[in-house]
Amino acid sequence: MYRRALASIPESRPRHQRGLTLIELMIALAIGLLIVAAMSVLLAGGSQSRREIEMSADVNENGRYALDVLSRELSQTGFYGSLVKPTAATTRIPADMPAATAMCLTGVANLDTWKDSLTYNVLGLGSAAGANIDADPSCIERKAGTDALFIQRASTCVVGAPNCPAESNADAYLQVSECGTEYSATPMVLGRGGTGSSTFTLQTKTCAGTPAPKRKLVRRIYYISAANALSYQDIPLSGALPAPVVLVENIEQLQIEYAFDTGTPADGTPDVFAAAPDPLAVPPTDWTQVIGVRIWLLARSSDPSRYTKNAASFVLGGDTTVSVAANSAGNPKRRAYSTYISFVTPKARSES
């Protein structure tokens, strides 16, 4: 029985297994290559789109940040602590000297000139058609065809206050009297840092001999460098210029119009907007009447874009147009920004 059962079980034979033919393999490889190529195109397109979006975001961020920085910095122009209104012994800074030269004056011998210059909150350097109308000052390297702005103000912190830099003999300091009877005779002192009570003799409102606070005098020029960076250069009393400070990179153009309050009496409202004072205007304008500025900036990307191959023009202010030539390889992305910045303290003085 057992043997018969075993004999009745059929023998298992190995089946014949067929592989892919050469034609089938080639078809599969072709389909795979088509899928890989399609995915590569999608990935490359996505990467390029992401790069374009990042460039647009960088241009937008640089332009808006530059306006924000200038708004915060320039709004303090003409602030001299509790000084009601600066007065000067001369009518210019200094008499018959070009503005560019006056901006870069240093040295203790020029302290009186600095003091007289406090009536001027700003001085400007103009440009047009890719060139500089006003001579470049010796203390900065300005990009051709861009404007520059020199401002003066006192530091917002007083010497000795927490987080305020220590007094330095390389800088000038402003002390304003808070003692009523003293203020009417000697409202302010401008002197070299480190000279102590021998120079800074003014008193607080108690008039009891307590020294009034001192503030560092900030003399600063804002400009576009040859490397397309919004920068500023501080002008110390010592004459040893510190390194320029880069505020925002990839800013290639700066144009400025000044707001003049020419009313009689002044009322803190701009009556004239112009790129520079006009002594022949009716009424004539001068730098002491500036109470604010209109700023135009042109921001750019650091790399070219395939979508900016055509020629383009950007209008910055009333009489300045920046033209970009066509480029088959692409130009950097560009965007223009503008704002008005009011000088808080000079405007308040005009209103009073």
TrEMBL record:
The chain crosses the membrane at residues 21-45. The keyword Membrane applies. Keywords: Membrane, Transmembrane, Transmembrane helix. One of its GO terms (biological process) is type IV pilus assembly. The keyword Cell membrane does not apply. It comes from the Bacteria. Pfam families: N_methyl, PilW. NCBIfam families: IV_pilin_GFxxxE. This is Type IV pilus assembly protein PilW. It comes from Variovorax paradoxus.
